[in-house]
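ugh ok so i messed up the first submission bc i forgot one of the chains. this is the corrected input, ALL of the components this time, i swear. 641 residues overall. if the numbers dont match what u have on ur side tell me asap before i send this to the collaborators (the ones from the other lab, u know who)
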Amino acid sequence: MKALVFHGEKDVRIEQVSDPSILNPRDAIIKVTRTAICGSDLHLYNGVIPLVKSGDVLGHEFMGEVVELGSGVSNLKIGDRVVVPFTIACGSCFFCQKQLTSLCDNSNPTATTAIRLYGASGSGLFGYSHILGGYAGGQAEYVRVPFADVGPFKVPDGVSDEQALFLSDIFPTGYMAAENCSIEEGDTVAVWGAGPVGLFAIKSAFMLGAGRVISIDDVSERLQMARGIGAETLDFSSENPLVELMDRTGGRGPDSCIDAVGLEAHGSGPGAVYDKVKESMGMVTDRINVLRQAIQTCRKGGTVSIPGVYGGFLDKLNIGAAFGKGLTLKMGQTHVHKYMPMLMDKIAEGEVDPTFLITHRGSLDMAVEAYKTFSKRENGCIKVVMDPRLSPVSGELESNRKEPAHV
Amino acid sequence: MNESIPCQNVSTLERAVSAGLGGFALARYGGRSVFGTVLAAGLLHRAATGHCAVYQALGVDTADPSTPLLERSSVQLSKSIIVDAPPEKLYPFFTEQLSRLASLSPEVLSMELLDSDRSRWTMRTPVGRHAFESKIVEKVENRSVRWESEDERFPHQGEVTLTPGPRGTVVRVAMNYHTPGGPLAAQLSRVTGHEPHEALERTLCNLRSLMEAGELPRSNTHPNSDLTGKEIAR
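and heres the new structure output, hopefully the right one now
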């Protein structure tokens, strides 16, 4: 089959690799009908996530059609159209029973590596670091899905592939980020990053009752899209978030702050320069400027919610400010399984159409170019969706192409 | 106060060499480089006291010519895991169904039952294959099992206890083994992922997965790129 294969920093290639096969009774093989590039794929692409190996197939946002089932899967049948959570969960352990599926005890075959680094292991993830299992990902024609009796969620008729696709990660991730804020009616929520997760966090914050959402970024197309879904915007290239956020909230600060950026924050100001210099000398793993600003501006008793990915140790983080203001910090990978049914209902009922953020469409053969475009935020690139069934087309990755007739 | 003085474990010749190198480092780098100054101080301290902390951690003693260079010293390890299964389902893994336990450990290459209490194990170690015999010396049904091995290269004792609780059974394995190099060697081999602690942890995680999820997670499915690594022509 054809797949997008990682070979090193900023080196991904489309290659022929062997087809996946059923290894365990609870496995399924999915023929991918839509796959996307996630912001966290860029962390892998930029080489900041450890233990991603040459030869790894990337991609953790995908959906498709069931083509093969293990003997232990009875709730799916061949031909079912399903969307697959990026977190792999057994469904039966202590954490899965609490719906904390991204913390599953039994889906990471390389758990001991994670235990050494973090004290305990999260769930296995598709197309990610070998710290979390090193499972082959979904930017491919076919994917092996473990625990398929628990993960893949059937897509109802009337919901298109593109509408369902983002339930695999970014929609639930944005939703959980907002839910973690315990939003009360009329709250003001500040969201750093107007990429896909930030945009879904904005949408979800409004769904949960926020009165105002302030979106912070420096890419004009992204800020424009944030305005399009009702957010106020703050361009950090011309305005200082530390000053501006206080100014816009009567000096109190936002009720909650969402860091939808994570460890590769660029930002501006002395903090950002400090991180960049230390990172270039290999003295720091994570650039945390957004987290500093979120903690500094959040109102007393508020919540800082962190859907953005972090990997290691922080430097110059003012935990005293978080303590002094009695902040709540919430974070972690998304418990996708928990949110999928409820969010699928909202899509089916027409309350949300997640396709609003798709800016680029193409075949899987366009993936290499798409990684470059997305990574540089060129051509207004916010979200790339690929259909591995499409034959390679000559020319550019198409921007805002209409959804093909077949779903 | 004698206990607080570390015992000498460096030979007279080595102390003289340390004194020379320390003096040189002090003259060359002293006060100019933090690392150089610390190095000089360390070497001079080693020369003056005849004690080396690294040697101590490795179980090495060059001061006493009667001891072997790398003395075997004892390493203790223990690991607990909660498994959502009753003790009755777990106990057989450590008694009559040792082959099931062996299948959960990637380090075990083969296991042969010699009689009801004795078994022969072949393990993968950082220095190659190693076979040894193990004997169950005490068992309390559904509660605990103790075993021993008088093996020359890897002498060890171990005990597993099964304690039922509201969230499942706490499986605790405690082991005591002797290895050249002692605790520091154990730490170093831990980096390679072959150290007994890591092997034990992996085995217990696998036991939990088998009992709770019915199968072991497997991800060796990154379909390696074909050997040519040829990109598909657009």
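quick check: DSSP finds 13 helices and 18 strands in chain A. that seems consistent at least. Residues 401-407 of chain A have pLDDT under 50 and may be disordered.
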